[in-house]
Design brief:
Blueprint lengths: L2 H31 L8 H10 L5 E9 L10 H10 L4 E4 L7 H5 L2 E3 L2 E5 L1 E5 L2 E6 L12 H10 L3 E4 L18 E6 H7 L1 H6 L1 H6 L1 H8 L4 H11 L5 E5 L6 H7 E7 L7 H13 L3 E5 L9 E5 L4 E3 L11 E6 L6 E7 L2 E6 L3 E6 L3 E9 L12 E2 L3 E3 L5
Helix pairs in contact: 9-11
The protein binds zinc ion (ZN) (2 copies).
């Protein structure tokens, strides 16, 4: 090969690389410049609240957070301050341990928000989050079924964490778990490593935009959840699983808890309200970094009872009317699902559907505006309302 030919080849390679770099930089610029988060429509929201009976107090927060009490980068006080800056009402710590006593002791009203704590138990079946329990006198069992029963015995409930991550859940007999994680921030970043690396510059400048791009449709998780919920009341959780980058992760997934009375002024009272509502399934999840989900409502109206999310229609309740309210000023599409299958759809601010059941009814809302969020990824996932087969 002649010298001039080698020079030519180098030139071609250089040009190719420069071309790729330009495409990459252009793509980065597009991602950063064109990211937009859709905000809450205040007038529409208050209209919904006025029409609401009974009225709910919506409390917004983040679940599944690690601090320096286990393998997180920041202290509990720093995490509370970051949560307050992100506009949250509460942050739920789940430091590793069975339980993690220091983490539990750090609970309180800090930086003006509720810093709550449960723990994440490393069990024989995988990671099990435990919330809302009274402090145990001896450590929880490492055996998942036993641990779930121990937590329940202390007034708490358990959530199967990241069931399909590297540390996956090995399914066994049902032990009355209260929930399953549908999204997990930590798993998302690790599972899509190539995308994460490519998105590194966006992660630094617009972390919310980069995180949104990483989300894939949670089909395995929702499919499993639908099968579980058909047999036992099981609730869905969007989990931050934050160990670092708290600021970005605190904008990604939010839990919206619906309280039937204003938040108590004393810490213990307010803590009890949040955990009781989560245990009852009276909350919905949202990919909050894409758009503000505040104001979403899903309930069923039977003859003279009102059934909130998480509830089961009493036997002989008769036909019910499902009502979904999505008072958002941007394009979205609402799906009502029965046992995981679509039965009604709407692009408007209200969806009404009448049925006599039986089934497990839940709602998914998809964003239809331009967004880094994959259009197949649900923006809002409600918890179910259960209608039982009438007993003979
Ligand atoms: Zn874990
Ligand atoms: Zn974790």
């Amino acid at each position: 090969m002649g010298r001039s030919e080698a020079v030519k080849k180098t030139r071609i390679v250089r040009r190719g690389l420069a071309f790729l770099a330009i495409i990459y930089l252009g793509w980065l610029a597009w991602q950063i410049v064109f990211f937009r988060r859709y905000g809450a429509a205040a007038p529409a929201n208050s209209a919904v609240e006025a029409a609401e009976t009974p009225r709910y107090w919506e409390s917004e927060g983040v679940y599944h957070v690690h601090t320096s009490f286990s393998d997180g980068r920041r202290s509990a006080d720093e995490v509370a301050a970051i949560g307050a800056k992100a506009g949250l009402d509460f942050v739920i710590l789940t430091d590793h341990g069975a339980p993690n006593e220091a983490s539990l002791a750090a609970q309180g009203r800090k930086s003006g928000i509720l810093l709550l704590a449960g723990c994440e138990i490393s069990s024989n079946r995988g990671h099990l989050a435990a919330l809302g329990f009274a402090v145990p006198t001896r450590p929880f069992s490492q055996e998942a079924e036993m641990a779930a029963r121990e937590v329940a015995g202390l007034g708490g409930f358990t959530i199967i964490a990241h069931p399909y991550s590297k540390i996956h859940w090995s399914w066994g007999p049902w032990a009355g778990y209260g929930g399953i994680e549908i999204f997990n921030g930590d798993t998302t970043v690790k599972r899509r490593l190539v995308r994460t690396v490519l998105s590194l510059p966006i992660l630094l400048i617009r972390p919310e935009a980069a995180l949104l791009r990483l989300l894939a449709p949670p089909q395995a998780e929702t499919g499993k959840w639908d099968r579980l919920a058909a047999a036992h009341p099981t609730f869905a959780y969007f989990a931050a699983d934050a160990h670092f980058a708290y600021g970005a992760l605190f904008t990604l997934f939010h839990l919206h808890v619906l309280l039937d009375s204003p938040p108590a002024s004393d810490f213990e009272g307010a803590r009890g309200q949040i955990f009781a509502a989560l245990k009852a399934g009276r909350f919905y999840n949202a990919v909050e970094a894409a758009a503000s989900a505040r104001g979403f409502r899903f309930q069923a109206e039977a003859e003279d009872v009102l059934l909130p999310m998480g509830s089961t229609a009493p036997p002989g309740a008769g036909p019910v009317r499902f009502v979904v309210r999505t008072p958002f000023a941007f394009a979205h599409e609402t799906y009502l699902l029965r046992n995981g299958i679509e039965i009604a759809r709407s692009a408007g601010p209200e969806l009404v559907f009448r049925t006599a059941g039986p089934g497990v009814f839940r709602v998914e809302v998809f964003l239809r505006e331009r967004s880094p969020l994959d259009p197949r990824v649900p923006w809002i996932v409600s918890n179910p309302i259960f209608l039982e087969r009438p007993s003979r």
